[in-house]
Amino acid sequence: MVTIVVGGHFGDEGKGKVISYLALEDKPDIIARAGVGPNAGHTIFKDGIEYGLRMIPCGFVNEGSRLMVGAGVLVDPDCFIEEVKMTGSAGRIFLDKRCAIIEKKHKEEDAGDDFLRQNIGTTGSGCGPANAERAHRTAKLAEDIPKLKEYLIDVPSEVNYAIDSGKAVLLEASQGFGLSLFYGTYPYVTSKDTSASMAAVDIGIGPTRVTEVIVVYKAYTTRVGEGPHNTLITDDNINKYPLWQEILKDAEKNGVTGDNVNDILAKYLNEKGTVTCRQRWIGDFDYELGSYSAKVNGATQICITCLDKLFPECNKIKEYDKLSDRAREHIKKIEKETGVAATLLSTGPNPEDMVDLRK
Ligand code: GTP
Ligand code: IMP
Ligand code: MG
C-alpha cells in the first residue's frame, strides 16, 4: 500500500502536519521524502516541541518507521546531518546514493542572482542552480560525499521490496502544484515538477504501485515569493468577502496592525515561511487551481488544513459532527469543486488535531 501526500496549491499547505498524523496513525514501514529539496520547510510538532524540517521526512515522529530520501531529492549535506542529529533519527534514516548535492556555490548563486532572488523570489537554498547542474550532468551525487557514506542505500530496492511484502509506504512530497515547473505559474515556479507522479519518480516506484494520492489544501490559499495569486485579499476587494472581513475585525480587536489588509491578515494568521521567514500572501480558497491540481495529481482523497484558523470554533475538534455548520459548508464546497472526498480535516498544528473520515 503506497500513499502519496502532495500539495494542491502553492506549498505550505501543512503537508508536514498531515504526514506527522499519518505516520503515528498508520505506522508505515517506510516514510520517504520526495520533492525538490531543502527549499521546503515543514513545521511539525512532536511531544509539544516544534520542528522546522527541510530534509528529513516529517514522519520521523513515528519511531518505528524507516526514513528515506529518494534519488530525485536534492541534498544539502550539512542541513541533512544537522536534522539527523536534531531528530535523533540516526540508524533508521537513509539516503539514495544518487541524490544530487547542493554545494556552497549553488546557494551563493541562488541568493545572489537578481533574476532568481528578486524576480522569481526563490528561497535561496541553492535548489534551482543545483538542479540546473544536474541537468547539465556535472552535479556531485551523495555517493561522492564521504560524510554521507553511512546513510547511503538503494531506495527503490527497499521501497519496492516493502510493497511486495504487503507493507505500508508513505511518500512525502514538498512544495505545491502551482509551483510545478511544468504545470505551475511559469516562470514563477520551482525547479522541478511537484505533482504526485513526480513524487513516485523521486522515490523510484512505478505508477502502478501507488494506492492513494492525498492532495492537501489549506482552507484558504497562501503563496510566498513572487508570481500570480488569483484570489489575493486586498484593501479593494475585502468587502466582497464577509468571512475575511470578520477575521480582519478579530485581528484588529487583538491589536494587530499592518500596512494593508493582507499584511494584517498574514500577521494575525501567523503565515510566515519556515525557511526564509518571508510573510505569505493571503488569499481566499483558489477553487480553479485546486480543482485542476486534484485532476492532474489524480487525487483519490483530499485533506483540508487550518480549518481552525478560518473557523476558530473548530480548534482541535476531532469529530466531523462537532465542526461548525459554516466549516462543513466550506468543506462541501471544496469537495464539490474538486470532485474528490475530503477524508482528513486538520483543526490544529499538533498531529492529533485531525478529523479522520478514511474508515
Ligand atoms: P512545504 O513542504 O514547504 O510546502 O510545507 P508544508 O506543506 O509542510 O507546510 P508548512 O509546515 O510550511 O506550513 C504550514 C503551517 O501551518 C505550519 O506552521 C503548521 O504548523 C501549520 N498547520 C498545519 N496544519 C494546521 C492546522 O490545521 N491548524 C493550524 N492552526 N496550523 C496548522
Ligand atoms: P525555489 O524553489 O527556491 O527555486 O523557489 C521558487 C519559488 O518556489 C519561490 O516562489 C519560492 O517561494 C517557492 N517555494 C519553493 N519551495 C517552497 C515551499 O516549500 N513552500 C512554499 N513556497 C516554496
Ligand atoms: Mg513550508
What key attributes describe this structure?
single chain, 359 residues, alpha/beta, Adenylosuccinate Synthetase, Chain A, domain 1, 2 domains, 10-stranded mixed beta sheet, 14 strands, 17% strand, globular, binds guanosine-5'-triphosphate, binds inosinic acid, binds magnesium ion
Question: How would you describe this protein?
Answer:
The chain is α/β, with parallel strands linked by helices and 359 residues long. The chain has two domains: 2-223 and 285-356, Adenylosuccinate Synthetase, subunit A, domain 1 (Adenylosuccinate Synthetase, Chain A, domain 1), CATH 3.40.440; 238-283, no CATH class. Helix content is 32%, strand content 17%. It has a ten-stranded mixed beta sheet, with helices on both faces. Strand 3 and strand 4 form a beta hairpin. The radius of gyration is 20 Å and the shape is globular.
Shape: globular
- Category from helices, strands and their pairing: alpha/beta
Fourth CATH level, the homologous superfamily of the largest domain: Adenylosuccinate Synthetase, subunit A, domain 1
String of helices and strands = EHEEEEHEHHHEHEHEEHHEHEHHEE
- Count helical runs: 12
Task: Give a quick account of the main beta sheet: strands, pairing sense, barrel closure.
Answer: 10 strands, mixed
Q: What proportion strand?
A: 15-25%
Small molecules (ligands, ions, cofactors) in the structure = guanosine-5'-triphosphate, inosinic acid, magnesium ion
* Poorly predicted sequence stretches spanning 5 or more consecutive residues: none
How many domains, in number, for the residues? 2
Quickly give the CATH architecture of the largest domain: 3-Layer(aba) Sandwich
What is the name of the CATH topology of the largest domain?
A: Adenylosuccinate Synthetase, Chain A, domain 1
